[in-house]
C-alpha cells in the first residue's frame, strides 16, 4: 500500500508568505492505491516539536503549537495514520508570518503634495544579505520596484477593500533584488478604487480620500544576524512621470516622453490608522494569459478593429514604432453593432487607453498598469502593429478546481461562458460587470452565484476578505449595503431580499463547500443581526411586504425601464427569503453547537413558513402570482406545508414552464432554483427542455448568438444583431450562470453531502438526449469525479471518491448505497450492477 501526503497548506493560501494568522490552520490531501482508506490520526511537526491528533480531519486542522510571532518562519510537515500504519512524512511547507500587530510597523504613510505619481527613497546595503522582506501597501493602487526592477507580479495591488475598516498589505521576498551599496526603492501610485470615480450615472470621485499614499517597510537581515530597516518617511521624494491620467472606468494615458528628466520634490506625511492593516486571505490579481487577435477587421467607418475571439477582462499590450508625440489610441467594447464598436453599454465609461511615443528607431512596448477593461473587440489608431497586439487577461489568481463537459457542444460552451464570466468579474472582489461605469460588489449577484463559483475556482480566501468588508459595513440595525464595499452611500444600506441575504447564505455555502467552520463562526453575529432586522421589518405577521425590493430582478417579462417588476410579487420573494435565511441560520447555529440560537431561529423559520403558506398559498398549492419563480421558491425553500400542495406546486411549475414554450421566465432569484425545483418535482424532462431551449429567452440563445460570457439580460443582443437599448445591457454578468451548479450536481451528478465534500453525492441524472457528461472537482480532500455515458439502453457511470471521504451513490432505477474512496464503475440496465 502506498500513502502519499501532500505538503500542508495554510488557511486558503497556496503562497504562505506574510500570513496574517498566528495560528494558521493546516490542510493536506492523500494519494493512495488502497480503496476505502480513512485517516484515524495525524502528526504535525514544526519548530522541532511534534503533535499527534487522534482525528480523521485533514482540512483546516487547528494549529497545535504556540502561535507564530510576527515575521517568524516555520517549516511544517505532517504524516497520517490509518489502521495503525503511519505514512511517510509529507514534503515541507515553510510558513512565514507577516506583521501581526500594528506596533510592528515603524513605517508611516507618505503622500505626494500634488498630483505626482512617482515616489522614491534611497538606502544602503552594508554587507551580504541573508534575507529581506518588503511589507507594502497604498491608498490607491501601486506598482513597486527595487533598483528599477518591478517587485512581484501583482496587478491593481493592494486591491479594493472597505478602506476605513480594512487595508490589505503585501509581503514580498526581495532578497535577490538587493545589491551591495546604494539601492533605490520606489513605487508608482494611481487612483484605482481609492480616489478614482466609482459608481454609476457618472459616479463619485475621491470616495475614500483626497490624497494617494504609500506605506513601505523593507526589513533586511544580514549574514551576520544584524539588520536594517528602511521605511517610507519624509526623506522620500516624489515626481511627475509618464502617467498622465489613469481611471478604472475611463482608461489610462501614458506619455513616454516624460519617462526621464523628472523634478523631484519632498513628500508629505499622511495620517492613516495602521490598525486597519491586514494580510491577504486570498491570492492577488495577476495576469493569467495572453490572447492574440483572431481577426483584424476594417469597420465601415475605416477603423481597424481587433477581434480576440473571447469576451475577457484585462488590457492590451502594444508594440509600436513612430515619431515622438505620435499617439496610439485604444478603445474597447464587448460587441460590434453594424460592424463598429458598440460602446453604448459602457454608459459613461470611456474605456480608452492612450500611449504617446517617445520616438526613435526602437520598438516601444506598452501595457496599461492601473486600469482594466471588459472587451472582446478593440480599435487601434496610430503606429502600432495590430497583429502584434495582445490581450492580457487579468483576474484574481484563484486555483481552478472544477470542470464540466457533456455531449451537447452548446451546453459545454455555456459552461465555458460561465467560467469566463467568473474570471472577468472576480478581479479582487466579486463584481456585477467589468466594463461599464459600475463594477460593484453587488450582494445579490454573488449570493446566487456562490455555489457555482465555489465549484469552478478556489475562491474561499478571496470571499473571506469580501465577507469581512460586508460585516464591517453592516449597519447597527443589521441591514447591509446592497454592494460591498459600499461607495453608494447610505441610500444603499437597506434590507433587500436576495441581496442582503448574502450575509447569511454566502458564509453557509462556503462552509458547505470548503468546510470552514471558523469562517462561519466569524460571520455568525452578522448573520444573526441581519435576520433579526428583517424579522422586525416583517412585523408580527412575519410577512415582509414593505421597503424597497429588487424582486426577481430582470425577469424577462419585466418592463425594460423597471427590471424589478417581474411576474412574481415582491412580498412572495421577500418572505420566502426571510424563511430561507432563518432556516439556514438555524442550521448554521447547529453546526457551530449553538443550541439556543438553533432553537430560536428554527422557531422563527417555522413561523415564517406558516405565515407564507397562509398568506400566499392557496389550499390546492397555487402560489400567489402563479409564476415559475414563485413555485421554485416555495418548493426549494420548503414553504408548502403538505404533500398535496407540494405535488400541485410541482405540477403547476412544470405547466408554467411548458406554457412559456420552455423559455426562461425567471430573473436573478428564480433562475438558480427552477431546474432544481423541477427535478425534485419529478419533472427532470422539463428541466432539460428548459436547459436546451435555443430561442430567446434561454441560456443557449446567447450561445447561438456567439456569446463567450454570460449576459446580464436574456436579450442583451436581439436576434437581428442589434444591441438592447436598455440601460442594463452587460455582456459579462455571471448571475444567470448560476445554472452551472445544477449542471455539476444533477446533470453530471457530483455534489457535497457533508462540509468540504467529506461525504459526496454521486447522483447523475441523464436526460435531454445527452449521451455523456462529466464533472471533476478538486475538493479539499482531493480529486473527485463523476462521469457517465449512455450506450443504447445501458448507463455506464464512473466515479472517483477521494481518500478520507465516502459517497452516497444514487443511480437511476436503483436503491442508494454507500461506498468508500477509490475508483468505481457501475452500470445500469434495468437494474443496477456494480463492478
Description:
Helix content is about 20%, strand content about 30%. It has 14 helices and 46 strands. It is α+β, with helices and mostly antiparallel strands and about 850 residues long. The strands form 11 sheets. Strands 22, 23, 27, 28, 29, 30, 33, 34, 35 and 36 form a 10-stranded mixed beta sheet that branches. Strands 37, 40, 41, 42, 43, 44, 45 and 46 form an 8-stranded mixed beta sheet that branches. The longest helix is centred in the middle third of the chain and has 22 residues, at about 515-540. β31 (about 335) and β32 (about 340) form a beta hairpin. The radius of gyration is 28 Å and the shape is globular.
Amino acid at each position: 500500500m502506498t500513502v502519499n501526503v501532500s505538503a500542508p497548506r495554510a488557511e486558503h493560501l497556496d503562497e504562505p508568505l506574510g500570513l496574517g494568522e498566528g495560528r494558521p490552520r493546516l490542510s493536506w490531501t492523500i494519494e493512495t492505491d488502497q480503496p476505502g482508506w480513512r485517516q484515524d490520526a495525524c502528526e504535525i511537526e514544526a519548530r522541532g516539536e511534534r503533535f499527534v491528533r487522534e482525528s480523521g480531519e485533514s482540512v483546516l486542522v487547528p494549529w497545535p503549537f504556540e502561535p507564530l510571532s510576527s515575521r517568524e518562519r516555520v517549516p511544517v510537515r505532517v504524516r497520517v495514520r490509518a489502521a495503525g500504519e503511519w505514512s511517510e512524512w509529507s514534503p515541507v511547507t515553510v510558513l512565514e508570518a507577516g506583521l501581526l500587530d500594528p506596533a510592528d510597523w515603524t513605517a508611516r504613510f507618505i503622500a505626494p503634495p500634488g498630483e505626482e505619481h512617482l515616489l522614491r527613497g534611497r538606502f544602503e546595503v552594508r554587507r551580504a544579505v541573508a534575507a529581506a522582506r518588503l511589507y507594502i501597501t497604498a491608498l490607491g493602487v501601486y506598482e513597486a520596484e527595487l533598483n528599477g526592477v518591478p517587485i512581484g507580479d501583482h496587478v491593481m495591488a493592494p486591491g479594493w477593500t472597505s478602506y476605513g475598516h480594512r487595508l490589505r498589505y503585501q509581503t514580498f521576498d526581495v532578497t535577490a533584488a538587493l545589491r551591495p551599496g546604494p539601492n533605490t526603492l520606489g513605487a508608482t501610485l494611481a487612483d484605482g478604487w481609492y480616489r478614482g470615480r466609482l459608481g454609476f450615472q457618472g459616479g463619485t470621485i475621491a470616495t475614500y480620500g483626497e490624497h494617494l499614499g504609500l506605506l513601505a517597510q523593507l526589513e533586511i537581515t544580514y549574514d551576520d544576524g544584524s539588520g536594517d530597516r528602511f521605511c517610507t518617511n519624509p526623506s522620500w521624494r516624489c515626481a511627475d512621470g509618464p502617467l498622465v491620467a489613469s481611471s478604472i472606468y475611463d482608461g489610462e494615458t501614458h506619455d513616454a516622453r516624460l519617462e526621464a528628466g523628472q523634478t523631484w520634490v519632498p513628500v508629505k506625511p499622511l495620517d492613516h490608522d495602521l490598525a486597519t492593516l491586514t494580510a491577504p486571505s486570498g491570492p492577488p490579481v495577476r495576469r493569467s494569459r495572453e490572447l492574440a487577435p483572431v481577426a483584424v477587421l476594417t469597420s465601415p467607418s475605416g477603423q481597424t478593429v481587433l477581434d480576440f475571439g473571447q469576451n475577457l477582462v484585462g488590457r492590451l499590450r502594444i508594440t509600436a514604432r513612430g515619431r515622438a508625440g505620435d499617439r496610439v489610441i485604444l478603445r474597447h467594447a464587448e460587441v460590434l453593432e453594424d460592424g463598429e464598436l458598440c460602446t453604448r453599454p459602457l454608459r459613461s465609461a470611456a474605456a480608452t487607453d492612450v500611449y504617446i511615443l517617445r520616438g526613435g528607431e526602437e520598438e516601444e512596448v506598452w501595457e496599461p498598469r492601473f486600469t482594466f477593461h471588459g472587451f472582446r473587440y478593440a480599435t487601434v489608431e496610430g503606429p502600432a502593429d495590430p497583429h502584434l497586439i495582445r490581450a492580457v487577461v487579468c483576474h484574481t489568481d484563484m486555483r481552478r478546481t472544477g470542470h464540466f463537459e457533456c455531449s451537447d457542444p452548446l451546453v459545454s460552451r455555456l459552461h465555458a461562458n460561465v467560467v469566463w464570466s467568473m474570471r472577468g468579474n472576480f478581479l479582487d472582489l466579486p463584481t456585477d460587470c467589468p466594463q461599464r461605469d459600475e463594477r460593484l460588489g453587488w450582494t445579490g449577484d454573488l449570493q446566487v452565484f456562490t455555489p457555482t463559483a465555489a465549484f469552478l475556482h478556489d475562491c474561499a480566501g478571496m470571499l473571506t476578505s469580501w465577507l469581512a468588508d460586508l460585516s464591517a459595513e453592516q449597519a447597527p440595525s443589521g441591514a447591509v449595503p446592497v454592494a460591498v464595499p459600499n461607495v453608494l452611500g447610505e441610500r444603499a444600506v437597506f434590507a433587500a431580499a436576495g441581496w442582503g441575504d448574502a450575509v447569511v447564505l454566502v458564509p453557509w455555502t462556503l462552509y458547505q463547500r470548503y468546510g470552514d467552520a471558523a469562517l462561519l463562526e466569524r460571520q455568525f453575529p452578522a448573520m444573526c443581526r441581519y435576520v433579526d432586522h428583517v424579522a422586525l421589518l416583517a412585523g408580527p405577521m412575519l410577512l415582509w411586504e414593505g421597503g424597497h425590493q429588487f424582486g426577481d430582478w430582470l425577469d424577462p417579462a419585466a418592463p425594460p425601464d423597471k427590471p424589478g417588476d417581474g411576474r412574481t410579487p415582491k412580498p412572495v420573494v421577500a418572505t420566502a427569503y426571510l424563511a430561507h435565511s432563518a432556516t439556514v441560520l438555524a442550521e448554521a447555529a447547529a453546526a457551530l453547537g449553538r443550541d439556543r440560537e438553533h432553537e430560536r431561529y428554527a422557531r422563527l423559520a417555522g413561523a415564517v413558513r406558516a405565515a407564507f403558506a397562509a398568506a400566499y398559498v392557496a389550499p390546492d398549492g397555487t402560489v400567489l402570482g402563479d409564476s415559475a419563480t414563485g413555485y421554485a421558491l416555495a418548493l426549494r425553500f420548503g414553504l408548502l406545508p403538505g404533500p398535496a400542495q407540494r405535488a400541485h406546486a410541482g405540477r403547476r411549475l412544470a405547466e408554467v414552464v411548458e406554457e412559456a414554450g420552455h423559455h426562461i421566465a425567471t430573473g436573478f432569484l428564480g433562475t438558480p432554483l427552477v431546474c432544481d425545483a423541477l427535478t425534485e418535482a419529478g419533472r427532470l424532462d422539463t428541466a432539460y427542455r428548459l436547459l436546451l431551449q435555443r430561442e430567446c429567452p434561454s441560456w443557449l440563445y446567447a450561445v447561438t448568438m456567439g456569446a463567450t460570457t454570460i449576459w446580464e439580460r436574456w436579450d442583451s443582443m436581439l436576434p437581428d444583431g442589434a444591441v438592447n437599448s436598455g440601460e442594463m445591457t452587460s455582456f459579462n454578468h455571471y448571475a444567470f450562470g448560476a445554472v452551472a451548479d445544477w449542471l455539476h450536481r444533477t446533470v453530471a451528478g457530483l455534489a457535497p453531502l457533508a462540509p468540504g465534500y467529506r461525504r459526496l453525492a454521486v447522483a447523475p441524472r441523464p436526460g435531454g438526449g445527452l449521451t455523456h457528461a462529466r464533472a471533476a472537482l478538486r475538493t479539499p480532500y482531493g480529486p473527485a469525479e463523476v462521469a457517465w455515458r449512455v450506450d443504447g439502453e445501458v448507463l455506464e457511470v464512473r466515479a472517483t471518491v477521494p481518500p478520507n471521504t465516502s459517497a452516497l451513490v444514487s443511480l437511476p432505477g436503483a436503491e442508494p448505497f454507500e461506498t468508500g474512496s477509490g475508483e468505481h464503475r457501475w452500470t445500469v440496465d434495468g437494474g443496477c450492477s456494480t463492478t
